[in-house]
UniProtKB/TrEMBL annotation:
Species whose genome carries this gene: Adineta ricciae
Alphabetical list of InterPro entries matching this protein: Papain-like_cys_pep_sf (IPR038765), Peptidase_C1A (IPR013128), Peptidase_C1A_C (IPR000668), Peptidase_C1A_papain-like (IPR039417), Prot_inhib_I29 (IPR013201)
Protein name (record): Uncharacterized protein
Source superkingdom: Eukaryota
Keywords associated with the record: Signal
Length: 335
């Protein structure tokens, strides 16, 4: 009798997962080349769903939620593989004393209209080309008020790994071209089909896990941040503040664009733009705990800048300058 109950329960579980698998394929228009491939992806889907449900059961007080998304037929190692992060970036570390009390509680560059739509990463694509392009196009938008989508394909073709993308953009491509002029990879670099519209003349790199300095830097522009994305629940993340202590122990295997920060229920977080499409997370973005080097996000941070700014550079203020400081500045100018 016990065996009968066991097999009935087992059949119910797998029957339910088969229903969810069919729904998953319909919802995300999943098509596979062979029956063997579909069976393999179905097995991965089942494993991912079971792992997700175990996480929900074991972490009832988690500060984020998980759910089925378009990546559930992929192993997390597939999503993180192919990402060869640059090392030895020629840069200046701008580490200095920062008074964080003078900084705003919240910064979100998305509301300023300087962040391009979320990119949908393709398996095996070099995500460093994605994020380096995003940093430069955002800097240009902040300085000019014009958001132009940069060509990821250009950087993918012209700055292949192990080339340092930032060094390559400065010295080889002389900036990034519009996506409209270089919309797809050509298999090799072609700098004759487009004209760069945005560049930078300085690379700032922070090493030292100082998230207060990151908070200060992001007042000026967005940040490149490397992190570990194989932590529990990350692949299935839907909303909330990702905070899993074990994630800080894993390998660095991805890079994202940090576009802001904030606080929710006294819990500080970073706002990050991912490359897994709008169906993942909070419309392609995610929030992650700030102040504890969550998933090693503070270990390798880069920002691009222009030291020579034109008169047309727009100013974006997230905080008001204290009136005492304004009076002091005016007095110095008069005297």
């Amino acid at each position: 009798m016990r065996f009968l109950v066991f097999f009935l329960l087992l059949g119910t579980v797998f029957g339910g997962l088969s229903f969810e698998w069919d729904k998953f394929k319909r919802d995300y228009n999943k098509q596979y080349k062979t029956i063997a491939e579909e069976n393999q992806r179905k097995q991965i889907f089942i494993e991912n769903v079971n792992r997700m449900r175990a996480f929900q059961q074991n972490h009832p007080d988690a500060t984020f939620t998980v759910g089925i998304n378009h990546l559930m037929d992929r192993r997390i190692e597939e999503l993180a593989s192919g990402t060869k992060l640059p090392r030895g970036i020629r840069s200046i570390s701008r580490e200095k004393s920062i008074n964080v009390k003078d900084l705003p509680e919240t910064v979100d560059w998305r509301v300023k209209g300087v962040i391009s739509p979320v990119f949908t990463d393709k398996i095996g694509l070099d995500v460093t080309a994605v994020v380096s392009t995003e940093l430069v196009e955002t800097l240009y938008a902040i300085e000019t008020g014009k958001l132009i989508k940069g060509s990821i394909s250009q950087i993918f073709d012209c700055c292949p790994q192990p080339t340092d993308a930032f060094d390559c953009i400065q010295k080889n491509t002389n900036g990034i071209c519009p996506d409209s002029d270089y919309p797809a990879s050509l298999g090799s670099c072609n700098l004759t089909i487009c004209k760069p519209f945005a560049t930078f003349d300085k690379i700032n790199r922070l090493e030292g896990k100082n998230e207060d300095i990151m908070k200060a830097w992001i007042q000026e522009s967005t940040l490149w941040a490397e992190l570990n994305v194989v932590g529990e629940g990350f692949q299935e993340y839907t909303t909330g503040i990702y905070d899993v202590p074990s994630c800080t122990e894993g390998p660095i295997d991805y890079v994202v664009q940090i576009v802001g920060y904030g606080v929710e229920a006294n819990k500080p977080y970073w706002i990050c733009k991912h490359s897994w499409g709008k169906n993942w997370g909070e419309n392609g973005f995610f929030r992650i705990a700030r102040g504890k080097n969550m998933c090693r996000i503070a270990e390798n941070v880069v920002q691009v800048a222009n030291t020579k700014k034109s008169d047309g550079v727009r100013q974006y203020n997230f905080i008001s300058i204290p009136i005492v400081l304004i009076v002091a500045l005016v007095s110095r100018l008069i005297n």
